[in-house]
């Protein structure tokens, strides 16, 4: 029995332990309690990053899968946690973003907003990490709910009417998606008699085609809604611009990507044949998501709304990777999926950096309106922020040498190899429109004369705000310039995700109840 | 002079519920029961107190401790799962200690510890929820 597998519990246990300790020490609102909570969150995110890097080394570099049978109950009877390269890449990115956001929050949150922000952030981290490690559908659902509940409270933390309004829309629309997810899980258990993913993969092959199509369609609705796919993205622009900028930044970087992760995990594992037969359909959804997102971004007029719509448009690119997964080129199996995973890496880093920079601009100028007389001329007041925002915006649009260029190139190559001209054309068009939208943001927000009419009483701490954004932007440039190792990890991840037999063998579900490792 | 049924609730039902909660807490795992149900029963006992003596009394009694209790419960639950790792076994694997007291062998295990953690979280959470529910009704009544 391999005790190394115990490390898989750490990404869930570490945030939970530190969040519980934060609750334990916080009996009343005062500055000292918030400092304690802040320190605990900082320690937790550093530890979490360490564990994630350890798992990344074992899975993405050494090419292993790690399986933890909680309580030594053999799959499918107990709770199984599985980490492969895709999980580890997502865990590492999440850990990086968490660390960045904790530092950013130290620079931007005021005292009243700070209370309970950090424990909630840790509960969110626990939910996201757990979803990336879940080895069965029910635990995936449970961790989705953990992150939904903590994100709902984070959204409405300020208690302002528009925050409660946005939070309610967010929670209602997401609960509908959760209901669809839970119903699907129920149907699966009723028809196939199991919820363990490896066990399901074994039995799904024996299921009638009609059942497979119904289940795949329902899961596409559930995860597509969480991921913000066309036409199920309404909750995202309704809620992302209302909370504190630190909350928007972590949501834009993390939440939709959990839905994308679930699609990347479930579809190749349970419905491999549908990836090929539904390819036109998936690519259609991808193209429409890209287009609606970028058109939405051109129509709205505050900095964070523009960036929120770009989240939707970018999710389309990831789904494009999934759609191309079944038709890799001759060089490598699943090149399209690897390109999609690389796109997730690029997007999570750059999007969070952009939302943090946009939020900092909003906090400094006291408004997020992209109209003359509101935001504008920030380059004069805070030149460094303007420079960083500029680099991040061009990375999002896909200008070399940023990570955006490499990731879009990979997807384009996969699309052309597969002969999918329409989606390649759409992705190029959307890149161009994204560039236009970013130029508009720059002109309205940063260039020109200083136009602020009202200056907030308390502006963010400059270096604590700027340091995490700079770190993420440099990381994006680094990935763009030295893309080979990261793309190699994405290739390993794609191969592992598409290798169903390997996954089933690693988890090894049995039909006989017997605890593992009875020899000790 | 309080009404008779309030006296009954206060003097008789509350201790009965609390004893029932202890039985439920310890009966778990091999029989129906466990930390979750015991936590709900304790919260019901506090609900009886809210009805009999008012929410202000219960709030003064335990109000400030509810959030730390939730934290402590979570900590106990997670630590009980970690004991398995400390014992060179898998995460969440049960570890049992046998204490022999004469003829009687007391078995103490991490599953019970986990249940105590769950019990603390559930009882504290549901009680704070009930206290919050009783607040607006009262303020609305005063107006």
Helix-strand blueprint:
The complex is a heterodimer of chains A (520) and B (143).
Chain A: H1 10-25, H2 31-61, E1 66-69, E2 80-83, H3 85-108, H4 111-114, H5 117-133, H6 137-155, H7 161-192, H8 197-204, H9 209-227, H10 235-239, H11 245-270, H12 272-277, H13 279-299, H14 303-323, H15 335-365, H16 378-381, H17 383-397, H18 403-417, H19 421-445, H20 462-481, H21 483-498, H22 500-507
Helix pairs in contact in A: 1-2, 1-5, 2-3, 2-5, 3-5, 3-11, 3-15, 3-20, 3-21, 5-6, 6-7, 6-11, 7-9, 8-22, 9-11, 11-14, 11-15, 13-14, 13-19, 14-15, 14-19, 15-17, 15-18, 15-20, 15-21, 17-19, 17-20, 18-19, 18-20
Chain B: H1 4-27, H2 35-53, H3 55-62, H4 66-86, E1 96-101, E2 104-109, H5 110-142
Antiparallel strand pairs in B: 1-2
Helix pairs in contact in B: 1-2, 2-3, 2-5, 4-5
Structural class of chain A: mainly alpha
Number of domains of chain B: 1
Q: Kindly state the number of beta strands of chain A.
A: 2
Question: SSE order of chain A in H/E notation?
Answer: HHEEHHHHHHHHHHHHHHHHHHHH
- Tell me the overall shape of chain B: globular
State the helicity of chain A in percent bands. over 70%
Choose one word for the global shape of chain A.
Answer: globular
Q: Mean pLDDT of chain A, as a whole number?
A: 85
Q: How would you characterize the largest beta sheet of chain A?
A: 2 strands, antiparallel
Question: What report would you give on this structure?
Answer:
The complex is a heterodimer of chains A (520) and B (143). Chain A is mostly helical and 520 residues long. Chain A has a domain at 278-481. Helix content of chain A is 74%, strand content 2%. Chain A is built from 22 helices and 2 strands. Chain A has helices spanning 10-25, 31-61, 85-108, 111-114, 117-133, 137-155, 161-192, 197-204, 209-227, 235-239, 245-270, 272-277, 279-299, 303-323, 335-365, 378-381, 383-397, 403-417, 421-445, 462-481, 483-498, 500-507; strands spanning 66-69, 80-83. The longest helix of chain A is centred in the middle third of the chain and has 32 residues, at 161-192. In chain A, 60% of the residues are buried. Chain B has one domain. The radius of gyration of chain B is 18 Å and the shape is globular. Chain B is mainly α and 143 residues long. Chain B has a two-stranded antiparallel ribbon with strand order 1-2. In chain B, α1 packs antiparallel against α2 (35-53), α2 (35-53) packs parallel to α5 and α4 (66-86) runs antiparallel to α5 (110-142). Chain B has helices at 4-27, 35-53, 55-62, 66-86, 110-142, and strands at residues 96-101, 104-109. Chain B is 73% helix and 8% strand. Chain B has 5 helices and 2 strands; from the N terminus they run ααααββα. The chains are: A mainly alpha (520), B mainly alpha (143). Chains A and B meet through α1 of A and α4 of B.
């Amino acid at each position: 029995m391999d005790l190394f597998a115990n490390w898989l519990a750490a990404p869930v246990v570490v945030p939970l332990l530190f969040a519980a300790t934060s609750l334990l020490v916080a009996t009343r609102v005062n500055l000292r309690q918030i400092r304690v909570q802040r320190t605990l969150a900082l320690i937790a995110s550093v530890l979490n990053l360490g564990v994630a890097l350890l798992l990344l080394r074992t899975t993405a570099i050494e090419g292993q899968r790690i399986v933890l049978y909680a309580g030594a109950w053999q799959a499918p009877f107990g709770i199984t946690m599985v980490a492969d390269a895709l999980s580890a890449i997502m865990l590492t990115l999440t850990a990086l973003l968490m660390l960045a956001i904790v530092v950013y929050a130290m620079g931007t949150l005021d005292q009243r907003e700070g209370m309970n922000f950090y424990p909630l952030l840790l509960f969110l981290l626990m939910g996201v990490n757990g979803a990336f490690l879940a080895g069965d559908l029910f635990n995936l659902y449970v961790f989705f709910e953990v992150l939904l509940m903590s994100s709902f409270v984070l959204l409405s933390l300020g208690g302002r009417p528009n925050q409660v309004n946005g939070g309610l829309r967010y929670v209602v629309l997401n609960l509908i998606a959760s209901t669809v997810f839970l119903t699907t899980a129920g149907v699966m258990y009723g028809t196939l008699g199991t919820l363990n993913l490896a066990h399901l993969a074994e039995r799904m092959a024996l299921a009638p085609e009609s059942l497979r199509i119904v289940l795949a369609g329902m899961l596409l609705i559930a995860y597509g809604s969480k991921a913000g796919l066309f036409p199920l993205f309404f909750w995202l622009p309704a809620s992302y611009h209302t909370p504190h900028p630190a909350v928007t930044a972590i949501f834009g970087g993390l939440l939709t990507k959990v839905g994308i992760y679930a699609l990347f995990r479930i579809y190749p594992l349970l419905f491999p044949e549908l990836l090929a037969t539904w390819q036109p359909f998936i690519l259609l959804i991808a193209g429409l998501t890209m287009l609606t997102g970028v058109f939405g971004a051109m129509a709205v007029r505050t900095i964070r709304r523009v960036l929120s719509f770009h989240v939707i448009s970018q999710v389309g690119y990831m789904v494009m990777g999934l759609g191309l997964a079944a038709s890799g080129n001759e060089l490598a199996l699943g090149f399209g999926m690897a390109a999609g995973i690389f796109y997730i890496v690029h997007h999570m880093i750059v999007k969070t950096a952009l939302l943090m920079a946009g939020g900092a601009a909003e906090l400094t100028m006291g408004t997020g309106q992209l109209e003359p007389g509101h935001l504008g001329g920030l380059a004069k007041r805070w030149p460094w922020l303007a420079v960083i925002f500029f680099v991040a915006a061009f990375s999002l649009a896909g200008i070399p040498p940023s990570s955006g260029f490499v990731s879009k190139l990979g997807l384009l190559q996969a699309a052309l190899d597969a002969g999918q001209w329409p989606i390649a054309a759409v992705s190029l068009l959307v890149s161009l429109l994204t560039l236009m939208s970013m130029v508009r943001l720059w002109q309205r927000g940063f260039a020109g004369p200083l136009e602020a009419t009202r200056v907030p009483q308390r502006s963010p701490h400059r270096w604590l705000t700027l340091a995490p954004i700079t770190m993420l932007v440099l990381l994006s440039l680094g990935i763009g310039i030295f893309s080979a190792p990261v793309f190699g990890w994405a290739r390993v991840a794609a191969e592992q995700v598409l290798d169903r037999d390997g996954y089933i063998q690693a988890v090894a579900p049995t039909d006989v109840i017997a605890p593992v490792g009875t020899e000790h | 002079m309080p009404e008779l049924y309030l006296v009954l609730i206060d003097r008789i039902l509350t201790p009965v519920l609390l004893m029932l909660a202890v039985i439920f807490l310890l009966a778990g795992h091999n029989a129906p029961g466990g930390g979750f149900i015991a936590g709900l029963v304790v919260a019901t006992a506090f609900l009886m107190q809210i009805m009999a003596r008012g929410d202000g009394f219960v709030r003064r009694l335990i109000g400030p401790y509810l959030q730390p209790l939730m934290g402590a419960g979570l900590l106990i639950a997670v630590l009980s799962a970690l004991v398995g790792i400390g014992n060179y076994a898998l995460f969440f694997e049960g570890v049992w200690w046998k204490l022999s007291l004469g003829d009687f062998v007391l078995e103490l295990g991490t599953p019970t510890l986990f249940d105590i953690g769950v019990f603390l979280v559930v009882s504290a959470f549901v009680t704070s929820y009930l206290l919050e529910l009783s607040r607006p009704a009262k303020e609305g009544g005063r107006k």
